[in-house]
Amino acid sequence: MLRAPEKLEIASFPGSAPPPDGAVLRVTHCGVCGTDPHMYTGHLAVPMPLVMGHEFAGVLEGWGPDFPARDVYGVDLRPGDPVAIGTTLSCGTCYYCRFLPQRQNLCQNVNIYGITLGCDEEPHVRGGYADLTYLFPQTWLFKLPANVSLKMAALSDPIACGTRALERAFSPGMPSAGEGMGLGRSVVVQGLGPIGILTGAAARAMGAQPVIGIDRIPMRTEMASRFGFDEVLSMEELPEVEDRVQAVRSMTRGLGADVVVEVVGLPPAFAESLRLVRKGGRIVEFGHFTDNGTMPLNPQHIVNLDVDILGSYAYPNSQIGTSLAFLSRYADVYPFEDVITHTFSLDDTEQAIQASRDKLCVKAMVVSES
Length: 370
Hints:
Blueprint lengths: L1 E3 L2 E2 L14 E9 L3 H7 L13 E9 L18 E5 L1 E2 L5 H5 L11 E2 L19 E4 L4 E4 L6 H4 L2 H13 L18 E4 L3 H12 L5 E5 L2 H7 L6 E4 L6 H10 L6 E6 L4 H10 E9 L13 H7 L2 E4 L7 H11 L10 E5 L4 H9 L5 E5 L3
Parallel strand pairs: 10-11, 10-13, 11-12, 13-14, 14-15, 16-17
Antiparallel strand pairs: 1-2, 3-4, 3-8, 3-17, 4-5, 5-9, 6-7
């Protein structure tokens, strides 16, 4: 439980049956998201005390008599079923929920497991860094495909982030105009943490070619080479922006990439994306979930490039279905579980967050299987 910035402690709460319309999940795996270190350090404001963790999967323990015991596709659920969770709880009544329901990530009154639901009121535990957590009746539950393990399912959130970012670059209605994401389009992914690596793998699955990754950490660049990237550029070997720009152009007919996805979250990376993209291309800005400062920008560059710049904020719960379909279809193609380079017990959750913060792993995960 996060009691205060950089004060994470083991806490126990009285066990109780779920409310009539609620359920209890035994969490088996919870990934450490890139936002978790920001919450841990106080850089991202969250209610405290808080049970963190929002990239989780587990096994249903039971539920109250009024809980809708079906997954989102109408499949009946039973105690013991393995499930992935859509962790966004939209209000259903604000402007975005009513008029743009496909973009529930923009809900004006949103709650998110492990981020906004503090421990001050019952049920106290609504996050993934726990052995048991409570589920509200409106929670999106996805029963796992037979070939998707619980460990793989805990990657559904970062995959959802990456696939939704790529879908932002689609151009419906203009398939012959050579615009946006599609078959044979070139894609650059800046930043090869878990989201970046899985974004590249998804881009390849969508037919992109070439798929080019950029990072400076050897552990990440090596891992990316196993996930469908045609080329991985090391910032240690190409320390200057101009060198990386020329490398990308050499693989894209001298033009630059059709689509650039920025997953670093640092302003200089966004500035570089404007150098990596071709004229008329698309940049998807995903990395800046928290305020990491600003950068000088000449708007004329955007005009002269005739470029589209698209923000991508989280994802709607339906994207978890896309993640599970991707995991199931490509389970024998990509070594998904290998992305999780470091696992930690529930008691060592703080070490997991610190390892992620200090870039000591590709992906850290808290595992609490009994």
